[in-house]
Amino acid sequence: MMSRQRLLSMEFALPVFFLILTTIYLAAAFAIRAQISEPFWQGPRAIPIVASVMMYALLLFVLVRQFRTSNAKSQPGEILRPVWVMVATGVYIYVFEPLGYGLSTLLYVFALFFIFEFRTRQRLAFVIYALVVTAVFYILYAVIFGVRLPELFGVI
Amino acid sequence: MDTFLSYFNGFSALLDPLNFAVMIGGFLVGTFFGAMPGLTSVLAIALLLPVTYQIDVVPALIMCASIFMSGMYSGSITAITINIPGAPSSMMTALDGNKLMKRGKGANALGHAALGSMIGGTLGAVLLMAFMPIAAKLSLLIQTPGKFSLIFFALVVIVIVEKGNIAKSTIAMLLGLMIATVGIDELLSVPRFTFGTENLMEGIDLMPLVIGAFAISEILIQAQNWRLESEVDLDEIKKIRIKRRDFIPLWSEVREIGLWTYFKSTVIGYLIGVLPGAGGSMAAFVSYIEARRSSRKPQEYGNGSREGIAAAESANNAMCGGAFVPMLMFGIPGDPTTAIVLGVLVINGLQPGARLLENQADLISPMFASLIISALILIPLTLYLLGPLFLKMVTISRGLLYSGIAVVALVGSYVATLSIFQMSLSLVLGVLAFYMRRANYSPVAMLLGFILGPDLEQYFRRAMSLSDGDPMIFLTSTDSIFFLLLTAAFVYMIVVRKPKAATAP
Questions:
Q1: Which among A7, A147, B160, B242 counts the fewest CB atoms within 10 Å?
Q2: pLDDT truncated to tens, each residue of chain B (505 aa)?
Q3: CB spacing of A54 vs B400 below 8 angstroms
C-alpha cells in the first residue's frame, strides 16, 4: 500500500498537475474556431491536440512507472525556505508599481537577506548592503540604460 | 570572398569602444558566473537578456559570445582548485585538475585548462566561420517538408540525449511546445489558449521563460539546498598560494600531450556542439574518454593527467563554435545558451538562415570575432592577470549573491517590456521550473520545445497544405527522408543499441 505522503510527493504531484493542465489545454484546443474552414491537419488545432495526446500517454507511463517503483527517493533539502522566497517574490511583484522601485526593492532585499540569513545580526551592515544592492541595480537600469522605473511620489 | 571580408570587418567592429567594452564586460561576467559553483554562463546570459532590449544587436551578440566562451572555460577554475566544478562541463576537468592541485600543481593545471580552452575555443570558432558558408548553401537545399523533418530530428535528439529519462524529457519538451502555442496563430490569425485574457494575445515571450527557468528556479533550488551546501572553506582558500608564472604550461608538457590530442578533442567538441541538446558536458566527457582510450598513459587519467584536462577543456570550448552552426543556419539551438542568443536575434528582427549570412553578415561577424578574441586572447590574459584573484570569487557570500540575482532577474523581466504581467509570468514559470528540476524534468528541453515548437507546427501545416493533406510528402521528399533516416539512426545508436562496457572513470 502506497503511503499518503508518497502520493503527495513531487514524483506524483507534478505529473498529476500536468495531467490537469493538459486536460484544460485539450479542452481549449477543441474550442479553437478558425474563420476559414481548414482541413484538420492544416488547421490551428492539429498540433495542440497531438501534443495533448502524447502528453497523456507519457504522463500515464511516468505515473505507472512511479507506482511500480517500490522505494521512493526522498528529496533532500528544505521545504520552507524556497516557499518563503516564492512568497517574498510574489509580494514584491504585487507592490513593485504601487510602492515604486526604491522602497519595494529595498523591502524585497531585506526579506531575501533574512531568508538567506545574510548579516542578520549586524544590523548596520544588513541595511547598508540592502541599500547598496538596491542602488546598484537602479544605477544599472535607470541611469545607464535610461529605463523609467516605477516611482513613489516622484522619488525612486 | 564577401563573407570572409565581412568576417574581417567583424574584427574591426570590436575596435569600437562600446563593442570592446561589452566584450570585456561580458567576458568578466561569464568568468565570474562560470567560476561560481551553482552559477552558470546560461544564467549570466539569461540575466543579461533584458539588457539586450536596451542595446543594439551587435554589442548584444558580442556580449553573448564572450560570456559563452568565458563561462565554458571558467568552470575549470573551481573544478581544479576546490574540486567543485563551476559548470557541469568542467566535471571531467575536476577529476585530474584537483589531483594536480593537491600535489601543489594547481597553477599548472589551471594553465593547461586555459591552454586547452584557448586552442579548442579558437579552432572551434575558426571551424564555425569556415563552414558557415557551406552550411548556408546546404540550408537553401532544404524545402518545407525537409525543414519539418529537420526540426523533428532536433527535438528527438534533444530528448534522447537525456538517456534514462526520455519520457520526462519529452514531457518537458511538449510542455514548452504547448506554452509556445499560446497567442495568435501565425498562419490563420486565430487566438489560441488566451482564455479571454488580453495579456496572452501576443503569446508568452521568451524572456520570462528564460528568466523563470534559469534564474528564479536556480534561486529556489539554492534556497532548498541552503543547509546542504556549506559555504566554501575560507581557510583552505587562504592557504592556496599561486604565482603568475606558474600558470604558464611547460613546453615539454604540451609536447607530451601532443597537438593531435588538442585537435582531435576540438573536432569532437565542435561536432557535439552541432548536435542539438548535447552541450559542453557531453563534449568534455566524450573527448576525455577518447583521449584516455588512445593515450600512452591511460593509468594517469583520474590521477592528475594533464592530457585529460587538455582533452576535456579543448572539447567543451570548441563546442561553443559548433553550437552556433545549427542555430544560425536552421534556427535550431545546440544548447540553452545558443537558444537565448537565438532569442536575441529574433528580438532584433533577425531570422536565422542563409539570408542572415548573405545580407546581414555585418551584424553577426562581430560575434564570431568576439568568440575568437575571447578564446585566443582573453582566456590566457585574464588567467595571467587575474588568476590569483579567481579563488577569492568563491568567498563571496551566497546570501548576498542570490539576493542580487533575484533583484536583477525580476527587475530585468520588468524593464524588457515594462509589464508587471511579464514579471509575474517569470515567477510562475520559475516556480514551475523549480518543481520540474526537483522531479527530474529538464527545463532545457522545455526551453528548446518552446523555441522549436512554433517552427515545427508551421512547417508541418505548410507541408500538409502543399500536399493537399497527404502526409506521404514527408516520405517522398528527399531532404525530409534524409532527416527522418538520420532520426532513426540516432534513435538506434543512442537508445536501442546496447552500450559496450561502461568506460567512465
A1: A7
A2: 677 888 888 999 999 999 999 999 999 988 888 877 767 788 888 888 888 777 888 999 999 999 999 988 888 887 887 777 777 788 889 889 988 887 888 889 999 999 999 999 999 999 999 988 888 888 888 889 999 999 999 999 888 887 778 999 999 999 999 999 999 988 888 899 998 888 888 888 888 898 899 889 989 998 998 876 655 566 666 666 677 788 888 999 999 999 999 999 999 999 998 887 677 888 998 899 899 988 888 888 888 899 999 999 999 999 999 999 888 888 888 778 888 888 888 888 888 888 888 888 888 999 999 999 999 988 888 888 887 777 677 677 888 989 999 998 899 888 877 889 989 999 999 999 999 999 989 888 999 899 899 999 999 999 999 999 899 999 999 999 999 999 999 999 888 876 554 444 4
A3: no
A51 CB neighbours in chain B (<8 A) are 174, 177-178, 181
**What Å distances lie between residue B315 and A1, A116, B42, B264, B272, CA to CA?**
49, 37, 18, 9, 9
Residue A28 C-alpha, separation from nearest chain B C-alpha, in angstroms: 6
Q: Which of B151, B230, B134 is nearest to B454 (CA)?
A: B151
For residue A118, give the nearest of B181, B397, B457 by CB distance.
B397
Report the b/e string of B105-133 with b at 16+ CB within 10 A. bbbbbbbbbbbbbbbbbbbbbbbbbebbb
**Shortest CA gap B427–chain A (Å):** 7
Residue type, B302: G
Sequence ranges of the domains in chain B: 2-228+235-496
Give pLDDT tens digits for B215-254.
Answer: 899 899 989 988 766 555 666 666 666 777 888 889 999 9
ipTM over 0.85: yes
Q: Where are the domains of chain A?
A: 4-68, 80-144
The three cell numbers of residue B386 are 587575474
Report CB contact under 8 Å: A34, B219: no
Residues of B in contact with A58 (CB under 8 A): 167, 170-171, 174
Q: Report the distance separating Cα B372 and Cα B39, nearest Å.
A: 24
CA distance B356 to B367: 13
**Contact call for residues B37 and B88 (beta carbons, < 8 A):** no
Measured from the Cβ of residue A58, the count of other Cβ atoms closer than 10 Å reads 20
Q: Give B4-27 as a DSSP string.
A: HHHHHHHHHHTTSHHHHHHHHHHH
Partner residue opposite B435 with nearest CB, options A10, A41, A84: A10
Short-list B361, B379, B307, B347, CA closest to B93: B307
- Count of other CB atoms within 10 angstroms of residue B162: 20
Mutate to test the interface with B, among A16, A93, A126 (most CBs of B within 10 A): A93
Task: Please report residues of A whose CB lies closer than 8 A to that of B402.
Answer: 112, 116
Contacts of A90 in chain B (CB under 8 A): 427
Instruction: Burial-class residue B481 by CB neighbours within 10 Å (0-12, 13-18, 19+).
Output: middle
